[in-house]
Amino acid sequence: MKTDLIDKSGKDIKQIEVPENFSKQVRKDIVLKVFEAKKIKQPHGTYIYAGKLYSASGIIGHKRHSWKVSYGRGISRVPRKIMSRDGTSFNWVGATAAGTRGGRRAHPPKSWENQFRKINKKEMLIAINSGFSATSDKRVIENKYGLKIDKKLPLVVSSDVLKLSTKEFYAFLEKVFGTLNKILKNRKLRAGKGKLRGRRYKTNSGLLFVLGNNENLKINGIEITKVKDLKIKSLAPNGVIGRISIYTENAIKEIGEKFK
Asked: According to the model, what pLDDT value does residue 220 have?
């Protein structure tokens, strides 16, 4: 599989060979499986005594012919606490059990639960290669971002692009894509009640720029990563493939060596 190498002026200077990683079959199911397994989850759980902190004289028994028991009263064997009594008549209220008011949860989250999910090496490689292949599928990219891209995918640039200033780099992107609005990160105010719940803004992922391990770039508005740091969440944010991406020539060579 071949693609064009783009220089800092946005012109095609030559054709280069890209590794097989960019022409593999796309497996959306495996990508989503790997993404969910690798998602960072904060351990959380309920208080161990939740639903059991009531002040009462105890839970009633069910023995025959005894005082202060529920036997023979035609009531279920739900654990109950005594709120008050008049002689041998008791005012019982269900407690502790999951189906009672103020009781514990049936199966609460446990803070000691193992959050690690094992993924086979072959499945991980299939997911990564699916992410690479989706970045080289023009139909997927154009439908997802609403763009019309005239260049061959995947987009590979020469190392002289890394020397551009921020203003020149944005001008370069505008030449390649025809617009900046749909490829740069942007933040907008959320429409619903999430504004009151700690998630006031929504942010898109934006363009992914993949560098070689010995290359550096600092530009605001895009996500920059090196080949050694590439993860499935970068190639497929939220488990959805088809992220618009640019690779340097060195990154393309290193991808072919690393992901075999």
From this structure: 92
Half-sphere exposure of 73 (CA within 13 A, CB side): 21
> Helix or strand or coil: residue 32?
helix
Task: State the DSSP H helix or E strand holding residue 126, giving kind and residue range, or none if neither.
Answer: helix 121-135
pLDDT, tens digit, 9 for 90 and up, residues 100-125 = 888 889 999 999 888 888 999 999 99
Q: How many CB atoms lie within 10 A of CB 3?
A: 20
Q: Where along the chain do the CATH 3.40.1370.10 domains lie?
A: 2-41+116-258
Q: How much is the pLDDT for 52?
A: 84
With beta carbons less than 8 A apart as the criterion, state whether 45 and 114 touch.
no
- Predicted confidence at residue 39, as pLDDT, reads 87
Query: Distance between CA atoms of 81 and 71, rounded to whole angstroms?
Result: 15
Paired sense of beta strands 187-189 and 201-203, if any? antiparallel
Cis peptide before 19 (omega within 30 of 0): no
196-208 as b/e, with b when 16 or more CB fall inside 10 Å? eeeeeeeeebbbb
Q: Can you give the pTM of this predicted structure?
A: 0.78
Do 85 and 69 form a contact (C-beta atoms < 8 A)? no
Counting as low any pLDDT under 50, the low residues of the chain are: none
What pLDDT was estimated at residue 85?
A: 87
Under 8 Å between Cβ of 148 and 176: no
Q: Is 196 helix (H, G, I), strand (E, B) or coil?
A: helix
Q: What is the pLDDT, as a whole number, of residue 40?
A: 83
Q: Right CATH number for 2-41+116-258 from 3.90.700.10, 3.20.20.70, 3.40.1370.10, 1.10.357.10?
A: 3.40.1370.10
